[in-house]
Fold each of these.
Amino acid sequence: MGEEAALERQWRLPAVALRGALFALVAVFGWASVGLAEAATWCGILALAALPGVVLPRHRLLAPAGRLAEVAVVVLGTLATGGLPAWMLPYLIAPFATAAFDAAAPAEEGDRWSRLRTWGPPALVALAAVGLIAQAPRVADFNRGTYVSTAAVALAFGLASAVGAWWLRRSRTSDMHHSQLPYAEAAALLTQLRVVARQLPGSTLDPGGIATEIVDTASRIPGVERAAVLSAASGRRLVVLAEHAEERVDWETSPQLNSLLADAWAGQKPQAGQVPLSRSTQGPVASLVIPLVAEGRTVGLVAIESDDPAAFGPEAITAAEERTKGAALRLETALLFEDVRSMATTEERQRLAREIHDGIAQELAMLGYGIDNAMAILPPEAGEAKGELEDLRSEVTRLVTELRFSLFELRSNVDRQGGLASAIADYARTVGASAGLRVHLSLDEGGARLPASTEAELLRIAQEAITNARKHARAENLWVTCEVDPPYTRIEVTDDGQGLSGEASEGRYGLAIMSERAERIRGSLEIRPHQPHGTTVAVVLNAGARPTPRAEAPRPGSAAWAAADRARTEQPARRPDRGGGRGSQ
């Protein structure tokens, strides 16, 4: 009820102003109609009756009692001064409106006074009406009609003000509740997710693990030779979550280019035919696509191929549907959990970057300015003190530089349009330019994308390896190799620095973090010395799905690498069939 309390505090001043304006109005009317003495007497009594509503507007008992006293004083004062000209009746607007505004507030759980607030406005209107009408016979006959009309108009205006105040409070409360509704629903859903996640086995919310189980199940169908689970990604493309095949399969990830994939996704029905589901398949094949549908939504596709064109008849299609039944909901749950975790991680990294930038970074900058000012006012004979300040200023400059690198790393993400290789290359170029490293890039990225969570983990591993080379290795050259051909991926960072023996403790802590990230995405991390000196950090996903190499790649730092590097600098080569590129800086 914090929002309701804030709303009441917001309208407390307007309520007091309304009472003050109406009080001044009836005081002027009374002075003009019944004289100063009587007007002052009844206005004083009215002020005492209004005191609880002004001082204690939220009190559960005194505030309603004060409004009741205000109505009673208005009715008695009107009758005691002859009924006409009914100079006190305009003040009825104040107690009616405040009572209705209070009655429109939502009842708190266990509030015993909520019914008193609810029936307060009609009780006040009834009291005023009965009191004024009951005294009508005491008014002179020639004034009775005017009196009744005046009293009716006053009650109507008071009732209208009560309805307006009630509607205003209700509308504001509804607006606040509607603005908080998405957060309330999100909190409830996340709470349920946390409870369910604690009850399920640890690997159940891993999309890769669930996809692997689906592929293993589909691969046991008679006749199946190649199978994969495809899920939606950005840019109307698909990503390969898991696959089964004897040799490397280049699965089609664009539904627009394959009618079976597009029809299965849109129609949510199994599609069979002889259209290859991969770019690398040659010759006659039998293809089967089973959509994974959960709650009316297509979550993913199970793509199956066989070299026997007649492998998938009606019985095989029915068997495939039965084997994949129930997997869609599990996969969707895992993908949603992964998406929520990714958004939370990104938001937390952005929050940390903002706090560092607005906090310690600014304080360090001010400290540097203070050292500069101190050096400016040092006397010429303070040579030793000046040297100490210069050393301190250099250290502050180093810390500010490290903070800038940290902020850049925190804010770096894989662009939905650019891809993993582009993000790693941008980071390597920026770090290399700032640290004086010569960066050599070898990028080979096809059109297919990895899952967003996997790309994020690979980017962090590459960032950590590049940061270690910059901070601890004292290297001059940095070689970054990025091969992305889902599900196979290899990221390799090599430097010509002082090697693992020179790693600081924080650098070795970074190696442990990289190892944990690699395990999280089921990758293998290798850290080995680079000859003649330096370190190589490589992370590989799905090594068994590696494409057949066209030629042995030269080792970083070798003569062959240098020659290839010069050739790439003069004329960058591109793979026409994959859309990736190779370049150097």
Amino acid sequence: MSGPSRSPYRSAYPLRGVWIVRLAVCVLILIAVATVWTTNTWLTDRFTESTRSRAQVRMALYSGNVVSELQRASVVPLLLSRDPTLIRALENVDFSQSSQLLISYVDEIGAASLQLLDDTGRVVAATDRSTIGTNLRSAPFYVEALRSNDTVFITSRAEAGNFTFTYSRAITVDRKKAGVIVVGVDLAKFEQSWAGISDAVIVTDSEGQIILATEPRWRGRLVNEALDARSAPSAVARAIQATADWGALPPDAYVMGEAVMRNEARIPFRGWRIISFTPYVSIRDKVNAVLALEIMGFAMLLALSFYLLSRRAQMKSLGYQRETVELRELNARLQREIAERERAEKNLEVAEQTLEQSSKLAALGEMSAAISHELNQPLAAMKTYLAGARLLLQRKRPDEALSSFQRIDDLIERMGAITRQLKSYARKGGDAFEPLDMRSCVSGALSMMEPQLKRRKVTITRSLPREPVMVMADRIRLEQVIINLLRNALDATRESPVPQIDLILSSGETATLTVRDNGHGIEDIDRLFEPFYTTKQPGDGVGLGLAISSGIVADLGGRLTARNAREEGAVFEVQLPILNQDKEAAE
């Protein structure tokens, strides 16, 4: 009695369970990754659009403020150029009260500065008294004002790097330009208010030059030059920031190494444009807050899964311990089942031997029936030749009688060959195979059937090719197949008024012998090749001819088929492999 044996089925189930658990964990991780990725993409798009919309609203507000400031200051030069006090001061060259007057105006107007220049370009009155006496003859706002009859707007770069914005207009006295009034527009206050938000804002003129910016060093540069102006550490920070923004949309630009969203709008004043750069940090913070919650949830779910799996492993371990006794009992039952199976196998061997003996007896019975069937043809031919020889001897024609006796001798030899060949029906054989010309086999079969053919008026047509049709076969067995087909054709045409049998031999991919008759045809073609199936009268046959012929053709490597003709009769075809030169040499 052997010890407890480990069943392969027991070990297979835990292994499969481990793989199922691993697969479930992998699926959970994939779902988590897909969820986080999808959430990140969706929220990034959503928050980006909302941030862009707010930035565009702010730009519209900023643009409106700038335009409102410029429009309010644009009417001041026209009003002051018609002020009678300033005109009298220019006429009398008395500017003692002019500066005080301008200071009182600047509070009401809200302009950055006011200046009054005489016809020589000298500042004679100003809200900033330190500029009085300064000669600004070459200043653009003075030169352009003298050239034009309207208010002139001038943007000029100051020494500090910032830009000044002025409206200027000539004051006419007695149709002569006696001076110029200059109004400064305070747009720098917008830069200070814009700097209080997270967005970077710039205003460019019609040539793309930055004239207002929350970053002072950007003023006077083009937009691309301003964005590229950064120190070396900012480049490293830019690379780090670009790596950190893995889930954000592609940035429009980088400001101080930080990815930003660019929004641009037109200011309806002299081709100016306003551009804002909104950092993606606020978007990323909002998205990361949601992603952190999702990741936390999946982490808790994964931790719970591991906890349940560990509990399941503990329960399985306890179950394995309880199953030890059951496994021993199962092993004992298996041993008993093995012993019973061995006894059943011995009984099966005895049954197989009995069945084999029964099969041998059945084969002997089939062989004896086949021998009696196949010998009927030569015996019938011998009977015919003996009757003919008797008549020839009675008529004193011994030479012709001797030829009949010679044919009888050939038939006796053939009967011996048939009995030898019939012994091989129960086994596969190939020792008697030889290259044969099927034309000679057809001629031999017709010679064998000559006595039966002479007793009836049957038209036999032969269509044989001129070239040899070579096959590898046993002559006796192949002729026997042809004889069986001819005999069946004779029996089928027994009731035909004009019986006819056609023999057609063709050579293509296979050697095909067609035996066609104009008899009654085939009634049950599905059972045609079954042993002992026949439509003949008792005593005319036992129904083994076609079954034996089909087996012989199959042994020769071919096939025997049958079908009903289109009009009347039946068609049998014997197909055998063609023996070409290469195959013949190999054989």
Amino acid sequence: MLVATPSTPLEPGENALASLDVDLDASERFASSEIVLTDRRLLARDTAGGWRAWPISPALTLQHADQGGVGQLSLHDDSARLAVWRYTLGHDPDALRLLALFERQRRRLAAGDAEPEDEAEAEETDFGVESAVPPSTWVLLRLGRFAKPYRWQLALGFVLTLAATAASLVAPYLTIPLMDEVLIPYQNGKQIDTVLVWKLLAGLLGAALVAWALGWLRTWLLALVSERIGADLRTATFDHLLRLSLDYFGSKRTGDLMSRIGSESDRICVFLSLHALDFATDVLMIVMTATILFSINPSLALVTLLPLPFIAWMIHLVRDRLRTGFEKIDRVWGEVTSVLADTIPGIRVVKAFAQEQREAERFRRANRANLEVNDKLNKTWSLFTPTVSLLTEIGLLVVWAFGIWLVSRNQITVGVLTAFIAYIGRFYGRLDSMSRIVSVTQKAAAGAKRIFDILDHVSNVPEPAQPVKIERMQGGLSLQGLGFRYGSRAVIRGVDLEIRPGEMIGLVGHSGSGKSTLVNLICRFYDVTDGAIKVDGVDLRRFGVADYRRHIGLVLQEPFLFFGTVAENIAYGKPGATRQEIVAAARAAHAHEFILRLPHGYDSLVGERGQGLSGGERQRISIARALLIDPRILILDEATSSVDTETEKEIQKALDNLVQGRTTIAIAHRLSTLRRADRLVVMDRGRIVEVGTHDELLAREGAYWRLYEAQLRQVDESGVDHGPLPAPVPAAHPAGMV
């Protein structure tokens, strides 16, 4: 239970259940406020320290959203939105916990149960980033669509399981004649029937061999099927992940996604290959054994089943704690892998700032949280398993006592009691095994839920139902009344712009003015929320996403290279390119010379993310990559901002080759790099404020003139004058082209 601070206005007897530190204000500037959930009300402290309160009622709803790295909670009633709070996504787990407890408390009040939430229940929702709802075992049934291609193999596996189980039940039944017709008569002075003994022993051996052969074949067959189901599941999840829009990845951590596709699918595969098979065998064994027991002696069979209700009650009691616990373990483990995924790729920065100890402490904290969650679950599990074993031992003791009593009254023979004990050993053994499978089943259910969270996510950039085929793109762009929002925050507002085929447009403006968002919309990484973008007169949402992007060339400020050879990286957008095409693209990008100086030329391996190459070399390879696909629309996003002057000249030569005959949109903070642009588009706060050539915009002395003047003279913090920037060359096109 949370302890309220002295400033929290709690009423007498009111208990705080959860709180959230809100670190952004309505304008998304850093500020401190707070939300507190109690068993009666939702309280909110604003940045000035004042408190507001809303009594929890069925009409009150709390909604969660995250867009562009900002989380949001909004409070609504039947008619309006009452309040909204924004925060950085580091607080999202606390927000989701508060949301889950709010919903639970609201449902309780709606049902007429106003009892406060207890601490144990509150802890159960202290995990998760995606969904506060614990996984249901029924989610495993959704794996059926992945099992459908292998239904005949699974049917054969079930038949083999049935036959193997039946064969294993033959041996106890043969102990009845072995005891009653061989051993007991021998003790009474009768000669042993050797032929009968050999027949019974042959029957025992034959049943064992048949059960072994069928069990081996069944296990091998189902293991092959489960591996293929797991592989299909991983492939489907990764394929779906690649089709999701960029906003999905903005709120997810790499390590968590890797954990889902890797370890969670492996866990499901192990469940399908081993534990699901064991569960089916246990069920068949219990049903068939119970049938045989009732056929031998119904009264003794009823005594055998006495522990079943208690074990079933315990399984029901423990199951919910197990499945929420395993969900929590999965998410905490995702945090551990996320620390690794953050630190290892950024090891150069870690070492440069001497932050090894800090990252080690981050990992220790995540690892400690993982240990604590596992310890808590193991505490429950360690009590459950021995208790089930104790109940089965007590059941066996009761059967012995009742069986001896029946033998003493000559109602059953010693052979029947012996067979019963043999069957009961198998019956209780399978019962104990089934209780243990509860754990792995809940683990698999938690893993399946996390995978289906990905598969159920719908991309915000959907494919059209009947896509328009792109025969030959000219590259003309028409932006009509363009608007775009991250959640409720408007980023682009009312943008109208016509770009002719082959024209080069320079986008300029302060950081945060919407330049990168605009080119993201043109690339269709996001879909517009208002207006439309038309390419050659056709709304780009009518094109197939992949078909459209094949005509887009993108050169980023920080080029990304994959682990592989230089040639493979250049040919990434056109895998079937010939070596001659690759070399021609490299020559045009002014990369051929330095590539030949590498140890193996075009077959030289570049490290992960291009380690081993300079920034300028990586950039020229990315330009060659864009040149090779011969795009009709070219996007240059600060392509030369992070390199030195000499390297910039080399890259600029490559860009001059790249822009020829293509519709080009270039973003640059250094205005001198846009000297070849036909028109400059000045953006401010998501709007276009000026359009024109360099000379025209300077003559207006507006927003562009102020940007240009600010860059003419750069003065560092010490006041040193670095001199003027080179003036941009006037555009080759006349002013009438605006």
